[in-house]
Amino acid sequence: MNTITLVLVGATALTGIMWLFDVFCFRKQRKEELKKAEAEARVPLTRREKNEILESGGIWGNLVSCFPVLLAVLLVRSFLYEPFRIPSASMMPTLVRGDFILIEKFRYGFRNPFTNKVFYATGTPARGDVVVFKFPEDPSIDYIKRIVGLPGDRILVSKGQLYIQEKGGTDFKPITARELPENEQLYLERNPAYSSEAGVMGNEDLLGVQHRIMRDRGVMSPEPFFDDGTSNVVGNIHGEWLVPEGHYFVMGDNREHSRDSRYWGFVPEDYLLGRAVAVWFSCTMDGGVRIDRIGGIN
After folding, report:
1. Last residue of a domain, one of 79, 110, 128
2. Residues 216, 254 within the same domain
3. Which domain holds residue 20?
4. Cα(145)–Cα(249) distance, integer angstroms
5. Which of 60, 79, 98 is the last residue of a domain?
6. Of 59, 114, 149, 166, which residue is most buried, by most CB within 10 angstroms?
7. 191: domain CATH number?
8. What is residue 40's predicted lDDT score, i.e. its pLDDT?
9. Terminus-to-terminus CA distance in the chain, angstroms?
10. Cβ–Cβ contacts within 10 Å for residue 95, how many?
């Protein structure tokens, strides 16, 4: 559970306790005060005057009135939708630094907000889904990548080329990408301050799922590929992995500038937080507000 959620849970619990005390203890006293005021009044009290007596005021009243709002926000964040901010270029061109996205928490199931365990399943992750998950090397950090490999798939990355052998299949299928024409390229110019935000865009066919990727072919990560002891790995040139049951193989759309399953392994299903569905705002200190970024995610 991240810091914002912990603070929200604490604030909701505190104001909830105050709300219970107010309803079951103090409100009874205020009702007696209202009866007394009505008995002493020469003319019937207005609705506003009655509310001023019945409702708690001051700091206490303000905190008590926050409880329903905080509870609603907590329920929405825990079970329906949660906002995230994109901090890096690893998912370009689909998502860029400074995008604010919404993830759909219930897409794969309703989860216990404290343990992230599914208590009511609603669906299963699909190839091509852009997902937010707890980083396996440090679960306190949230990551976002695209699901490339499903449980039982074999994934092969050789000299930068991606191949997938689907569960039950016998052959590796090359994952092809058609380069976009020059007039549709958006990130050819390299900014020295953000060198990873440059590359050639293409349309990738991920076994029937169409989406855009970005390649920076003059770059190669010095980090060796992930090896779980059963993988066929040669440095960062060749890697072949069998995706375990209950796990997923994920990659960033900015292939040469993404640290993903190629380097740290598989994502357990219990670590998934939800599917990214929309960009609701986008801005950076160096680029300003980008209204054209708002919309759905492919």
Report:
1. 79
2. yes
3. 3-79
4. 9
5. 79
6. 149
7. 2.10.109.10
8. 72
9. 27
10. 25
Strands of 200-206's sheet in order across: 177-179, 200-206, 209-215
Q: Are residues 109 and 22 in the same domain?
A: no
240/274 same-domain check = yes
50 and 165 housed in the same domain: no
Task: Quickly state the pLDDT bin for 35 (edges 50, 70, 90).
Answer: confident
Q: How confident is the model at residue 37 (pLDDT cuts 50, 70, 90)?
A: confident
Asked if 68 and 207 sit in the same domain, the reply is no
Phi-psi region of 58 (alpha: psi -120 to 50; beta: other; left: phi over 0): left
pLDDT confidence of residue 46? 79
Confidence of residue 179 (pLDDT cuts 50, 70, 90): very high
- Separation CA 257–CA 191 (nearest Å): 14
Determine the pLDDT at residue 20. 92
> Do residue 148 and residue 183 come from a single domain?
yes
Is the per-residue pLDDT at 112 higher than 70? yes
pLDDT in the model for residue 285: 84
Asked if 280 and 208 sit in the same domain, the reply is yes
CA distance 225 to 164: 17
- DSSP string over 224-261: PPP--SSSEEETTTEEEEEPPTTEEEEE-SBGGG---H
Are 144 and 68 within one domain? Answer: no
Pull the structure tokens for residue 27: 């409100």
Q: Are 167 and 153 in contact (CB under 8 A)?
A: yes
**How many H helices and E strands in the chain?**
5, 19
Which residues are marked as active site? 90, 145
Determine what percent of the chain is predicted with pLDDT higher than 90.
72
Predicted local distance difference test score (pLDDT) of residue 1: 63
